[in-house]
């Protein structure tokens, strides 16, 4: 039997395949940013890890946009 040094604290089931960046997890709060593609539009979603709930979603441009998020940073207030 394998032991996991990092046991899961919560599970979140998402409707769309998502990606996560190294900076996606807030260093001092239970928040994570997920990036997904819905109908050809990139979307960012903020999740509360302790409750497993979606806080907000926002579209990142139009279908024809070539913009892509490659990094992010957190402000001290989350």
What does this structure look like?
With 78 residues, this protein is mainly β. 0% of the residues lie in helices and 32% in strands. The protein has no helices and four strands. The chain has strands at 18-19, 31-38, 41-48, 53-59. Strands 1-2-3-4 form a four-stranded antiparallel beta sheet, with no helix packed on it. Strand 2 (31-38) and strand 3 (41-48) form a beta hairpin. The N and C termini lie far apart (38 Å).
Write the layout of secondary structure elements.
Blueprint lengths: L17 E2 L11 E8 L2 E8 L4 E7 L19
Antiparallel strand pairs: 1-2, 2-3, 3-4
How would you summarize this macromolecular structure in one to three sentences?
Helices cover 0% and strands 32% of the residues. The chain has strands at 18-19, 31-38, 41-48, 53-59. The mean pLDDT is 80.
């Amino acid at each position: 039997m394998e032991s996991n040094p990092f046991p899961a604290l919560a599970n979140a089931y998402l409707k769309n395949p998502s990606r996560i960046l190294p900076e996606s997890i807030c260093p001092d709060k239970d928040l994570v940013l997920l990036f997904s593609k819905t109908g050809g539009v990139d979307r960012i979603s903020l999740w509360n890890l302790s409750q497993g709930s979606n806080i907000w979603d926002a579209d990142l441009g139009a279908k024809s946009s070539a913009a892509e998020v490659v990094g992010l940073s957190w402000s001290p207030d989350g």
